[in-house]
Amino acid sequence: MRRYGKNPDEDDIRVRPNTKGNRPRTNIRPKHEDAAEGMVLTVDRGRLHVLIGDRTIVAMKARELGRKSAVVGDRVAVVGDLSGGKDTLARIVRVESRKSVLRRTADDDDPYERVVVANADQLAIVTALADPEPRPRMIDRCLVAAYDAGLEPLLVLTKSDLASPDKLLETYATLGVSYVVTNRDNFLTGGVDAVRERLKGRITAFVGHSGVGKTTLVNALVERQRATGIVNAVTGRGRHTTTSALALPLPGDDGWVVDTPGVRSFGLHHIDPSRVILAFPELVAGTEECPRGCSHDEPECALDAWVAAGHADPARLDSLRRLLATRERREGD
């Protein structure tokens, strides 16, 4: 084998031809220090709509990001044509660290996580009191997902002109969940203002079954029209009218609403039970004597003695265990 000295003549060095005609690979990635920062508003077939300043531009994910994806709510760094003009396309070169991630799986046996929204700080769980009938198990699952993601839950009950909210609110009284009750008629008399007041200065993701009035409520909040549908009279289920998540600013730029597609299930395969209990601060200290890997619903659980000693309300422990058991139950049970 021929060996070269420290300073070989260029003519003596054999160079492998690049038959593909592309650039040689390198592990050095550009820093893109001049990239503009923006917020992802929606994702549509690989194209991301990003708000930069007062302009909305269309961008695609740069190859250097690999498998890392950007979702609605992400703060991203963008380079390229940022004019927002027709047929222009920029590149997302960096996804900034997320302060929160709301996830779900298709069902409890599916290990594939779907990110619903990034960087939200509140989850509005929209539930109709009738037409379709409320499904408490679905609400429980959304609450568990909110607690796991570190989001503050807000229960939004719609169609109160068709049924009373009292029974459902009683179910969640011990959880201390904030709530607001509204219907289509009181939108004209300040009902929507009561909801908007809860959203001020926050990024709020709206989730709920199809047909519960979620998009109708969002339209009223942001003064913008997205398609709405009706409930099927035979199945009692709504139709999907929102097909992709979309972040919309509240009037006066005083917060954001993220309208998400209606869901028929909310899988919790990814949930860490140790994070759910953080929503019950009066119970956290009682877990110090629990055995390792305690599910908090077994004979050796130290929370029973903690509650018996008067450190917390027994109803709160019951609520915690009901939420933790949600993963073993289907929404329709």
Question: Explain this structure to me?
Answer:
The chain has eight helices and 13 strands. The model is unreliable at 227-241 (pLDDT under 50). The protein is of the alpha/beta class.
Write the layout of secondary structure elements.
Layout: E1 36-44, E2 47-52, E3 55-61, E4 75-80, E5 90-95, E6 101-104, E7 114-118, E8 122-128, H1 136-149, E9 152-158, H2 166-171, E10 178-181, H3 191-199, E11 203-207, H4 214-222, E12 246-249, E13 256-259, H5 273-276, H6 281-284, H7 303-308, H8 314-324
Parallel strand pairs: 3-5, 8-9, 8-11, 9-10, 11-13
Antiparallel strand pairs: 1-2, 1-4, 2-3, 4-5, 6-7, 12-13
Helix count equals 8
Write the H/E string, N to C.
Answer: EEEEEEEEHEHEHEHEEHHHH
The whole-angstrom Rg is 25 Å
- Largest sheet, strands/sense/barrel: 6 strands, mixed
Structural class, judged by helices and strands?
A: alpha/beta
Relative strand content: 15-25%
Can you count the beta strands?
Answer: 13
State the helicity in percent bands. 10-25%
The 3D shape can be described as globular
For the termini, the CA-CA separation is 74 Å
Task: Strand order, main sheet: write it out.
Answer: 10-9-8-11-13-12
What is the typical, i.e. mean, pLDDT?
Answer: 84
As residue ranges, the low-confidence spans are 227-241
